[in-house]
Design brief:
About 85% of the residues lie in helices and about 0% in strands. By secondary structure, the protein is an all-alpha fold.
């Protein structure tokens, strides 16, 4: 099998596994929202936000550093690096678990203190999603298929239990959620030990080097998570779990887009880490290509979704969640900002530019405090959506400044001009097709946009795919 075909098979395996995983997770969210009610869904969303903050703190930016570090090493040096990395993650998880248990006992908890404690004790498995970079860098990305498959099946089993007993308490639901993640972790560990042999010899200088690179990213990730999840905690505190449930429904609809963004950018870190050292011009061109793709995908989404927001929310979650339509129309713009932020983070990390996270993310958290305090009390979920969007925009601006000054301009003017022209066509098509109703107008206008964008090269999916294949092939060729 050629490098091109092997890479295609690997990406297909990873893609299928992740699609199953995210689909099973969304199925759980959908069943909880529809069968257990808006208020219970709000409480469960509060627990999930608590898990997100805890898992981010336990990661401390080290997953991105792992992909970067392993890509630059081979053989015994790579095994030594991996072993020390896992030891460090185990210590971090234990420390954060203790902190989360204390937080669960003292924080306002939306009537879900038991669920928060279960989530805190389950943090070691909830924060263990660092295996895919390992499988990718050692040349076996297809291994990620199996733990994701196992996780997906476990989540579907939880879905079946919720359908059978929709009156189960949030505590039991959280315990089942933790158990499904434990299935993923167990399978991933078994596969790693079969195919990769970590060297467990502690190395203090190496651990210090990993933490030195990871700490700015970890601080940034923690404050970023606090900034973008603060709306959940403030909204629940001021307006209760019912309003939070509607707001969370809007967020969950966008999960698939964010999942796609993560999948799109994850391979960039090891690729750019190598390429920036040898050919910065090629690395800049590759980064521009992905920024163009992100803009060409996310901008039309942000334009079309408000047209069908009410129909989309009620079709997925039911009539009780119709109030999520207005927040969704605002939050959909966050998808574009998140995609650009993820690409920028990959570039900055590969370029060794990480210290700015010490002030950019805390600044974003401060912005979140100000915006949530100003908007949420009077405007509820809509105010929370605007606060989330403003916070993400502020953090993106700070991070992109360093990308521009230390690496280059990621926005090719001609490409951005073509995207703007295609989006203008999309807006015109939506307006002309209004008599057909919002759903048909959105479908036909989106089809017109996609046709023009693909034919003109404005949406460079083929070029993005080709550049990843070429980069993968280059990595497999021996040097010299």
């Amino acid at each position: 099998m050629t490098d091109r075909h092997q890479f295609a098979a690997n990406v297909l395996a990873q893609g299928l596994a992740r699609v199953l995983s995210i689909a099973a997770n969304l199925a759980l969210i959908l069943v909880v929202a529809r069968l257990m009610g808006t208020e219970v869904f709000g409480r469960f969303s509060y627990v999930l936000a608590f898990i997100t903050v805890g898992a981010t703190l336990a990661d401390l930016g080290t997953t991105a550093v792992l992909a970067h570090g392993l890509a630059l090493l081979d053989g015994s040096a790579r095994a030594h690096y991996l072993g020390n990395y896992i030891l460090m993650r185990a210590v971090l998880a234990a420390l954060v678990m203790a902190g989360c248990v204390a937080a669960a006992l003292v924080l306002p908890n939306a009537g879900a203190q038991g669920a928060l404690l279960i989530a805190a004790f389950g943090l070691p498995v909830l924060a263990s999603r660092f295996f895919e970079p390992v499988f990718q860098v050692v040349g076996r990305p297809w291994l990620s298929l199996w733990p994701n498959l196992a996780f997906g099946m476990a989540q579907l089993a939880v879905v079946a239990l919720v359908v059978a007993k929709p009156t189960m308490p949030v505590d039991m639901l959280t315990a089942l959620f933790v158990a499904s993640n434990a299935v993923y972790t167990g399978m991933a560990v078994i596969l790693m030990l079969r195919h990769v042999r970590p060297d467990w010899t502690p190395d203090r200088p190496l651990l210090a080097d990993i933490l030195k690179l990871a700490l700015p990213m970890g601080v940034g990730a923690l404050f970023t998570t606090l900034a973008i999840r603060m709306d959940v905690f403030v909204l629940e505190r001021l307006h209760g779990p019912l309003v939070l449930g509607q707001y969370s429904a809007a967020y969950r609809i966008l999960d698939l887009a964010v999942f796609f963004a993560v999948t799109l950018t994850t391979p960039l870190i090891p690729i750019l880490s190598r390429e920036i050292r040898s050919d910065r011009t090629a690395a800049l061109a590759r980064s521009r290509l992905f920024v163009q793709g992100a803009c060409a995908l996310a901008l039309p989404l942000a334009i079309v979704v408000p047209t069908v927001a009410t129909e989309l929310v009620t079709a997925i979650f039911g009539a009780p969640y119709a109030g999520a339509a207005e927040p969704l129309s605002i939050l959909v713009w966050d998808v574009l900002l998140v995609m650009l932020a993820l690409i920028g983070t990959a570039v900055n990390l590969a370029n060794g530019e990480v210290r700015h996270a010490y002030w950019v993310a805390p600044g974003g958290a401060l912005m979140a405090v100000v915006l949530n305090a100003a908007l949420v009390p009077a405007h509820g979920a809509v105010g929370a959506a605007w606060a989330a969007l403003g916070t993400q925009a502020a953090m993106l601006a700070g991070s992109q400044y360093y990308t521009f000054t230390r690496f280059g301009n990621l926005y090719a003017p001609r490409a951005i001009g073509r995207i703007a022209a295609c989006c203008a066509l999309l807006v015109a098509a939506l307006w002309l097709l209004q008599p057909l109703g919002p759903v048909w107008a959105a479908l036909l206008a989106s089809a017109a946009y996609a046709s023009v964008a693909l034919v003109s090269g404005t949406l460079p999916l083929a070029a993005m795919w080709r550049t990843l294949i070429e980069a993968r092939a280059a990595r497999r060729r021996p040097a010299g």
